[in-house]
Design goal:
With about 210 residues, the chain is of the alpha/beta class. The protein has a single domain, classed as Rossmann fold. The chain is built from nine helices and nine strands. A seven-stranded mixed β-sheet has the order 3-2-1-4-5-9-8, sandwiched between helices. The protein has a two-stranded antiparallel sheet with strand order 6-7. Strand 8 and strand 9 form a beta hairpin. Helix 3 crosses helix 4. The longest helix is centred in the middle third of the chain and has 15 residues. It is globular, with a radius of gyration of 16 Å. About 40% of the residues are buried.
Length: about 210
């Protein structure tokens, strides 16, 4: 049923979903491997979809931890609430750029990791900048941000499709960006593990 739900949404709202199939177990392993989940207290997942990574995260997180899953697609959000019945999971139907606002409204100002399946290349630049700019203060020096990008590396800008090398963008926000290729996924994807956020003042100077 999850695959059928995903396929229907991918066909009707591709720019939001940004994928043609759920993440494979190989991609999921690569996304979660860099994170010390056994000791995590609070983890954020952005772009949770039908819950492939959500379930894997919950399998690895402690019994007293919290997983906040952001999902802008209403059908996916309902699917998660109905099918992933774990008291540690909070499904938040909100946009990625409201991350900090949503967390602080819940009394959370620090997280151990952010796992993102967002199609950053299809997001408006202001939304992408707002989302990435919020991560540093939430993660701190010890946190980890993981993100993937499909092999085609495409960006939609002003109605035109062009190449988009995400690694260059991520290095504006993180001092350490490690990259690996996952071939056993549809389509193949690059996985980025990002650590040690760039100071907010330095980021602001790039956009001034």
């Amino acid at each position: 049923m999850a695959l059928k739900t995903f396929a229907m949404e991918a066909l009707t709202d591709f720019l939001t979903v940004g994928a043609i199939a759920p993440s494979s177990r190989y991609l999921t392993h690569a996304m979660l491997g860099p994170i010390p989940l056994a000791k995590a207290r609070v983890v954020v997942e952005v772009g949770a979809g039908t819950g492939v990574m959500t379930r894997a995260l919950l399998d690895l997180m402690p019994a007293d931890s919290t997983l906040l899953a952001f999902e802008i697609n209403a059908r996916f959000a309902r699917h998660l609430r109905s099918n992933v019945l774990d008291p540690r999971l909070q499904v938040i139907h909100a946009r990625a750029e409201t991350l900090q606002e949503e967390l602080r409204g819940r009394g959370i100002d620090h997280v151990d990791a952010v796992v993102s399946s967002l199609a950053l290349g299809f997001m408006a630049e202001r939304q992408r900048t707002a989302f990435l700019g919020e991560l540093g203060s939430l993660l701190g020096e010890a946190g980890v941000f993981t993100q993937f990008q499909y092999l085609h590396r495409l960006e939609l800008k002003n109605g035109h499709v062009r190449k988009f090398h995400l690694v260059h963008l991520l290095r504006r926000y993180f001092t350490s960006v490690q990259q690996r290729m996952i071939w056993r996924n549809l389509p193949p994807a690059f996985v980025f593990a990002c650590r040690r956020p760039v100071p907010a003042a330095a980021i602001a100077s790039l956009h001034s």
